[in-house]
Design goal:
heterodimer; A: mainly alpha; 6 helices; B: six-stranded antiparallel beta sheet; 7 strands; elongated
Chain lengths: 229, 217
């Protein structure tokens, strides 16, 4: 069991041989182990590896020592005059205006990795939602193909039926026109007009015949018109 | 001065370290999963929603419910034609090369419906009365009478106009001792075109075509 500086988390019992780590995996887990972030099973696997690997065990000791030494150092505060100068320059650069986008956290830097990851995730999710919604809408509004397309014979028959309907309509309209001509116009307009005209003409001829004194074939007065044979 | 934090100084101070699956990466994944789930829910709702309603023939202003008028019973019919928009589009497409005027007329139609029954025996007067009722029904619903002849034979031709466009044509015919007919054409049409096209068609040539079959109206 490697000797660890005081304050390091205890190393647990070794796991079965099938679960042992490689050196690369072990080195990647040293820091999380020192921070106490490793799960129990992972810590056991790490311990098993460290027992058999002096190199990784030395790395663990080194990391623990550095951690201990640095933790012992006092944390430096920013001097007041430096803080004031940085603040003044920041205000001067921004122009006295503070703009913060509503979606950005107050303390986050504009192009921090976390914000970029969130934005990428949001954009990917929106694109995926649009694709799914668009596909659904397209399928929904696609013309229904429930009925089989008519055959050529059915189409030809339908054409003949349509022509029949048009011909029948023309027949009815022509019959109606003939009825109108013969039964309506002839009976109620043409014949009455013809009879009226005939009566007027007969009356005119009668008046003309009675008004003229000369009639017949005998010799008339001089200058009278002679009838030619 | 403040002591150092308990976290190892060799690790980045940003808690969202890529070495451990901390808050940053899993949070992004959670957000992605949430948005994707919302999108899938919206898609599922769209799938489940009923499709937009197709315009019904019965809602067309030029449509006449000939079944409701009840001029003829199904058994009386010798000729019954029911052509809807889909088959009419195919007819128009098929006739476009050889008869473009006919194709142009048919392409604007939504339906052609014909019922013809023989007039024999005492049923003639019953059918005549129903034709008269149908004529009054049409006039009561804004159909404009073009021809109305009531002599020995009766002929009625009605047009339905909406916004200056003729959207329906209905013909009622009664020939005693011969046959009676009801024709309803739905869609955009030009009566002059119908007359001109019909004039070139000889009814006798088409007599064998519209034999009544068991069709659904």
């Amino acid at each position: 069991m490697p000797h660890l500086p005081p304050g390091s988390p205890p190393v647990r019992r070794a796991p079965p041989p099938a679960d042992r780590l490689t050196c690369d995996d072990a080195l990647a887990q040293i820091e999380p182990h020192l921070d106490g972030d490793l799960a129990v099973a992972a810590a056991e696997r790490l311990a098993a590896h460290l027992e058999d690997c002096p190199g990784c065990a030395a790395e663990l000791r080194l990391a623990a020592e550095i951690r201990h030494e640095l933790r012992s150092l006092p944390e430096l505060d920013c001097p007041p005059h430096v803080l004031a100068r940085v603040t003044a320059e920041a205000r001067q650069t921004i122009g006295g205006r503070r703009r913060r986008l509503p979606w950005r956290p107050r303390s986050a830097k504009p192009w921090s990795r976390a914000a970029a990851a969130w934005r990428a995730a949001l954009a990917a999710g929106v694109v995926a939602a649009l694709l799914v919604g668009g596909a659904a809408w397209h399928a929904l509004h696609r013309a229904p193909a429930a009925q089989a397309e008519p055959s050529r014979q059915q189409t030809a028959r339908a054409a003949r039926e349509a022509r029949f309907a048009l011909a029948y309509i023309d027949r009815v309209s022509r019959r109606a026109a003939l009825e109108l001509r013969d039964q309506v116009l002839a009976r109620h307009l043409v014949l009455p007009a013809a009879r009226g005209l005939s009566r007027s003409l007969a009356a005119t001829l009668d008046r003309a015949a009675h008004a003229s004194p000369r009639s017949g074939a005998g010799p008339g007065p001089a200058g009278a018109v002679r009838e030619r044979s | 001065m403040r002591p150092m934090s308990s976290r190892s100084p060799l690790r980045p101070s940003n808690p969202r370290s890529p070495r451990t699956p901390g808050v940053g990466a899993s949070g992004s994944l959670r957000l992605f999963a949430l948005v994707l789930a919302l999108g899938l829910s919206a898609g599922a709702a769209a799938w489940a929603a009923p499709p937009p309603a197709q315009p019904r023939l019965e809602d067309s202003p030029g449509y006449v419910p000939i079944g409701e008028l009840g001029i003829f019973s199904r058994q009386e019919l010798t000729t019954e034609i029911h052509l809807n928009g889909a088959i009419l589009k195919l007819v128009a497409e098929a006739a476009r090369q050889e008869d473009p005027e006919f194709a142009k007329l048919i392409s604007g139609l939504e339906a052609i419906r014909v019922q013809i029954a023989p007039l024999k025996g005492p049923d003639q007067e019953r059918i005549r009365a129903r034709i008269d009722e149908a004529a009054r029904w049409l006039e009561a619903r804004g159909w404009q009478v073009v021809v109305r002849v009531r002599e020995k034979e009766e002929s009625y031709i009605y047009l339905k106009e909406v916004g200056g466009q003729i959207v329906g044509l209905t013909v009622l015919s009664f020939e005693p001792g011969d046959e009676a007919a009801l024709i309803n054409i739905v869609g955009r049409l030009d009566p002059a075109e119908i007359g001109r096209l019909g004039r070139g068609l000889h009814l006798r040539q088409l007599e064998r075509v519209p034999q009544r079959e068991d069709k659904h109206n």
